[in-house]
Amino acid sequence: MIIAAMLVLAPISAAFAAHVSGTISAISKNADTITLSGGKTYTLPEGIEDTKLRIGEKVRLTYADKGGKAVVSHLVPQK
């Protein structure tokens, strides 16, 4: 019964946003993505301009997994 409840709730938890902080290690303007120093790549939606971001910049971002991609909804530079 517990396993059944976990299987039902698993897709719901994927819809929630997550937060992460890190240093930008790569930027792909063609793919509209950034990669943080931990190695994970995040997709930037319209409205978040990659032209203002720099490799080595520390950021905090909010993202959600959508279609197998980590899509950023909010990005803030850190000091």
From TrEMBL:
What are the UniProt keywords, alphabetically? Signal
Q: Which Pfam families match?
A: DUF1344
UniProt-listed InterPro entries: DUF1344
Q: Where is the signal peptide?
A: 1-17
Q: Kindly provide the name given to this protein in its UniProt entry.
A: DUF1344 domain-containing protein
Q: What's the source species for this entry?
A: Rhizobium pisi
